Amino acid sequence: MQVVIGWEEGPRGVRPAFVTDPASARGLVFDERCTQNLVPYLSPRRTHVARLGRPAVVVKGCDARAVAGLVRETQLKREDVVVIGVRCGGVVADPTSLEALSPATVSDRCPGCTAREPHLADHVVGEMPPPPPAGSRRDARIAELEKMEPAARWAFWQEELGRCVRCHACREACPMCFCERCVADKTQPQWVESSPHPRGNFAWHVTRALHQAGRCIDCGECERACPVDIPLGLLNRKLAQVASEQFGHVPTDDPAVPSPVGAFKKDDPQEFIL
Amino acid sequence: MNLYEPYLARVTDLVDETPDTRTLRLAFQEPELARTFDFKAGQFGEYTAFGAGECTFCIASSPTRQGYIECSFKTVGKATTALRSLNVGDTMGFRGPYGNHFPLGKMEGSSLVFIAGGIGLAPVRSVIWNALDLRDRFRDVTIVYGARSVSDLVYKRELAEWAARPDVTLRQTVDPGGETPGWTGDVGLVPAIVEKAAPSAADAYAIVCGPPVMIKYTLPVLTKLGFAADRIYTTLENRMKCGIGKCGRCNIGPVYVCKDGPVFTAEEMAKLPQEF
Amino acid sequence: MNGRTITHAQLAALVADLVAAGTAVTAPARAADGRLDYRPVTRLEDAVLGDGLPRLSLKALFLPPTEPLFAFRLSGSDVAIDSVPTSFPPHVVLGAVPCDAAGVQALDKVMGWDYRDELWFGRREATTIVSVGCSSRDETCFCGATGGGPTATRGADLLLVPLEGGFAVEIVTSKGEALVTAHEERFGPAPNEADVARSRAALAGSRVEPVAPLAPVTTWLAEHFEDPLWADVALRCHGCGACASVCPTCHCFDIVDEPEGVTHGTRRRNWDTCQAGRFTLHASGHNPRADQHARFRQRLMHKFSIYPARFGELLCTGCGRCSRACPGGMDLPEVLRTIAERAATAGGAA
Question: Do B248 and C257 touch (CB under 8 A)?
Fold first, then answer.
């Protein structure tokens, strides 16, 4: 291995670290602040990281699903990366936070987590800590939104998506948004308007959510990267619910399990495809 | 006046230079503007195909030819595809002229050596005609022009015209393998042909435009021939949106290509970061 | 101090007066999710003054994330252009953060050199900026190192400094003075200078800026376009551009045509970012900044070298938003400290 991608103490909390010198490896940390998913750095688009050489990456169980996703979708050869897994009891939402892990500070994606053991890893480090609180907050919030009158729900999303400035930070920070040329950047034809007006913003976020259906590994990086705090996790989670209900798919760190958009089964609900 | 509003112009002529390169001639619709519009060789503009957007090209015609301007472009993206779909009589937009220019005034009384590759002849053509229309103000005029193949040569009618003129020395060349059976020009890369043509550097200026690799290998040849770096001019192409120093896209290090350029001397280019 | 005072009650009445007269008032206010944005307000209670940075900076009011440049109508071979107005109705920003006001002023330079951007200046002229002393500095911000401070007036027309029961009002520009004159009855007499000094000192606090003054950084950058530092400091960068979105001075934009049907459409100006690979991508496929470290370098160079060289001022007001927004944990003060150290070492060696 020529570089280990892990976490280190930065000037403000923990942050991604790129260790190329074995002596610096002692600077690597893992604790409840290590919320960042480091797998996006394995994307072929990160030429500046790829230049460092053959990588090892440290993953939580949830992040391991991103490695599996890249392998499943042929963006990464499993043998080209060494995966170091850490057992996780939940992480805080804000990696710069000084507050301890608690029901108040835990990342929205952690409660109810079923991916705390990184099965895919070549090496697993640490004992299994106690689990985060039970019960998905996102599921609860989605249930609330679904109970709303359509007009109120529409108003909610207008307010939230109305803030979008189309920086596409959600895409760039996403481990599964690896397309060399995103549909939103295509101009012939222009499928998605690039302007941050309501029409363009809805088109973009709906398109991205659909493209993530059954592929999103629920690491929350899009939501964390969003400079205007759009609750993108809700959109992705809703699509994950659909993938689960309709296709029986749950995010997994087994690369051999196909994603619902990458596979066809005779008993898929949309029988019209036949 | 809103800077981002283009002038309206009508396409008055079009020429297919190569299978993928077209020249449009446009005339401004506003009569007063059509009468007074002025620019200098080397300046550029933003050309609009309404509904598809703007593209940045130099003005390929000479300021001495009044009443119209021309642009030549390769069809590569959305806006150039839309520009290509325009017919004579259709309306397009133009903002400009922007940027600096070739200092032709300073070059008066000197010899001129024009070196171009591919569609890089477009900005050079503006200066060539400008100089030829004021022919008595300049000494020797030499043109070395090359393209990948015979079909990739642009402005073929004008090449013939220049070739026929006794007061112009024209060397045309195509890359090895790009020649056709009847080809009477040179075969070889532009830098090699420049070396062979060996234009005198005595009281001369060189104006060079073409692909980066052509420029890279032509500059040492010119140096060898005795051209000082401050007497070699080229024009840079960078992606732009506004053309007027605001949108932040065309910087090369500290340089705003749209405002400080697009025309630079080899001396200035050597000082730029290698990021273009 | 050239000034007046205003009580909370008077300020509330001023906002009511302005709104009644049809002047739009924008202030930091809570969005539905509880976070601060610059939002239209109609009453003072909704404004959050001097207590944190809005998510997006003040530049968004003058260079909106998207705006029409003009509309066009196509008819056969003809095109007609429908202009957009370049003059704007009066507007008051109440409670601008000083680093945001400074950012807007810094941008006047690029928006005005040679070619005057009438959409920018139309909004600038119509808008009176009332800044308020800032009490929310943290370890990511460094206004002091960029020539600002919690009660700096650069870019402000009026500055409010908190006092018991209200604010001292510093009149900075004639535009600010005009606002006071037009609403004379809403302002009190000059403040007690000692009270104002105490309030300013309290806002300034005793903290040490996380970055030293930046002149040596500017000098170093001009000579180090090529340096191993760039590949190193940019490793964490996702190229996501969140930094540019929240920045009070990042102003790169795109221009796009949006057809609506086949007969008409709009040309728009949209925010863009030099951190995106597509930003400099030529149609030919060539990309002068193909690598993320080149893009990160560009942003830093633009702020601390290119802009100062061209316009005599930094393109950064030290607001710290970029550090807070970065999903990769990049920290601008840290990068600037690293460069300052190298500059000092280089200086010592020379």
Answer: no
